[in-house]
Amino acid sequence: xxxxxNFDSGNIxxxxxxxxxxxxxSINKDNNSHFYQWFHFRLTGAKGQLCAxxxxxxxxxxxxxxxxxxxxxxxxxxxTWFRVSTVYKNGVLTIQHVPETDSVYYAYFAPxxxxxxxxxxxxxxxxxxxxxxVIGESCDGRDLDLLTIGEEDEDKKKIWIFARQHPxxxxxxxxxxxVLERLLDDSDALSRNLLxxxxxxxxxxVNPDGSIRGHLRCNAKGQNLNRDWADPxxxxxxxxxxxxxKMDEKGLDFSLDCHGDEALPYNFIACFxxxxxxxxxxxxxxxxxxxxxxxxxxxxxxxxxxxxxEPGKGNLGMSTNQIAHRFDAVAMTLEMxxxxxxxxxxxxxxxxxxxxxxxxxxTLDALSAILERL
Length: 374
Known about the structure:
Layout: E1 2-4, E2 13-16, E3 23-26, E4 40-44, E5 51-55, E6 73-75, E7 82-83, E8 86-89, E9 92-97, E10 103-107, H1 114-125, E11 130-137, E12 143-149, E13 157-163, H2 171-183, H3 189-197, E14 198-203, H4 208-213, H5 238-250, E15 254-261, E16 268-270, H6 280-296, H7 319-327, E17 330-337, H8 353-370
Helix pairs in contact: 2-8, 6-8
């Protein structure tokens, strides 16, 4: 029996794997950071045996409330993921499972591999309406890929969609995959109509280094990118430095920053109530987007979410606040659960890649409904 994590987005530390009934594990911290919660590893040689995989440092993870009512995901082929029995008790997260084969993967959420990211970007770039641009390099020297979809024109609305500032929130790139799939479907009338009126700038993975390293929230140098938007350092946070500079160059009317939330079992948006000189019309437009999204996709809701910032108290280091303030634009953060949706559960999969992709489809319906207000 062996446990390994030396692969793309792998993260686990083995304390003791001598007995399948008491496998002792811990999660490694993000580099130069105290954050940790993402795990992804492979168990081999335990076919047909009841395994208890105990993550012993779960209580000190970034969001311990995230373990309550949480079920880990497993896969035999690294493609189809399903939920497995998981219990959080006395500070230990225990995954209980009888593997059906001698190779099984476990993860915090279904991973979105760097190979898949490259395939997504390259496949999109074959479309005649798409231009791929490398806007800079990450700390580890990886390409920062930006897809421009549609013909650029001063009269068109400029729509920005980006994901995985926090690399462990892999559902965000699954959602973007759904957005791209629909936008590039020539048979989809709504997408064709949107591309007549808008140009889309899509960055599926803002933090490729953290994704490959198996980080939860940080880039290779330990920076939480979604706190660096006010004054990004080109050495410590080149990902945000280049992305914000490109937004300045191109302009922006609407942005959707895609994330996952560890604790809340809901899909919801967070807006920019606390920015200086709040534009109430823009904020109302963001709220309208949420209501329209709820109409077309019952997995989304507007009742539960984060507490709203008091006027003038918003953190301008966060993307949505900085963008709304900087561009006088409609901006929002879309959050998805690591768990399941409390109001529309699917016990077999929980929240999943496919449901994330379908929510991505639905965001375009909601965008179309508010477009005349942008």
